[in-house]
Amino acid sequence: MKWTKKQLNNLFFIVGLAAVVVMVLTFDVSFAELWQQLTRAGYWLVPIIGIWIFVYGLNALAWQHIIRSNCDENDRPVSFWRIYRLTITGYALNYATPVGGLGGEPYRIMELSKDVSNQHATSSVILYAMMHFFAHFWLWFSSIFLYLALAVIDYVPMTPVIGTCLAGAIVFCLLAFYVFSRGYKNGLVVKLIKWIGHIPGLKKWSQRFQERHAEALQNIDQQIAALHKQDKHAFYSSLLLEYASRIVQSLEILFMLLLFGVDCGGGFGGLFLTFLYSVLILSFTTLFANLIGFLPMQLGVQEGGFMLSIAIIGMSTKLGAAYDAAALGIFVSIICRVREILWILIGILLMKAK
Q1: Is residue 243 within 8 Å of 132, Cβ to Cβ?
Q2: Looking at CB atoms within 10 Å, which of 2, 28, 284, 342 has the fewest?
Q3: 8 Å CB contact between 140 and 165
Q4: Contact (CB, 8 A) for 111 and 63
């Protein structure tokens, strides 16, 4: 049985709604505690949730640069509103399903292929997914040096263990940059299909898939390589926008720190320092979330990432505020979980928008 795109769209919609219902019913705090934390957040919930309008907007702009560079005159122009909707819906499906990316990327390819060729849709989605992860590594890499700078002025602790971890992180990021550079220069789809063939039970499938789609796979890899070689402006603009979206996302944590009374003494200097701490917390947390990305909404990982990051920052006496790091970690994780559920629901509902 061959499914139509409309039937697949309905299937994604049903799966997404079911995932939202499961998340709400299995929320790992009592209603009383949830209500207490939401009441504590108060009107701060508006900027905490609303900041993601701009985060997703930057993501969509980054993807738009790739789509425009990757397509040709035979493809229909794709409006920003359509790219924006697919961006939100794609992330909603990724958040809602185990092994993030098994839901969002196929859905984006399916929908984008209504406007451009299947090969251009596939390569554009793969290129954007690569850029999304590439920007993550740049966030982690730059955060290492931000942490070192704050350690020099004694605003964060520096121990032999932390120093060793930072050195390992630098090596890890440099290795990732090398892998990405190879992928951008030569493409990676053919190699990925071949690698899947090494998984027990998938060798024959990999061989058949390569034989049936050899030309299409080669074309997709050529389109991936062409972005960096032929349109460096689109490449670096997309990377800058993706990186900027992480910085804007840090404002969500800043709002919650301010709500909890953490302002590093107040004033412009205190707010700026608190924002730098927010960038570090986001970097730590996203690193944990991506290392253990097979859990829906990274259950338990966010809490651990937030609490570990905040506990490290709380070791410094320069913060100028007394607070319970564990309580702050729980508050941040609960509010972020509520925000995720709301945006997942919005993304799923946008699947039916025209």
Answers
A1: no
A2: 2
A3: no
A4: no
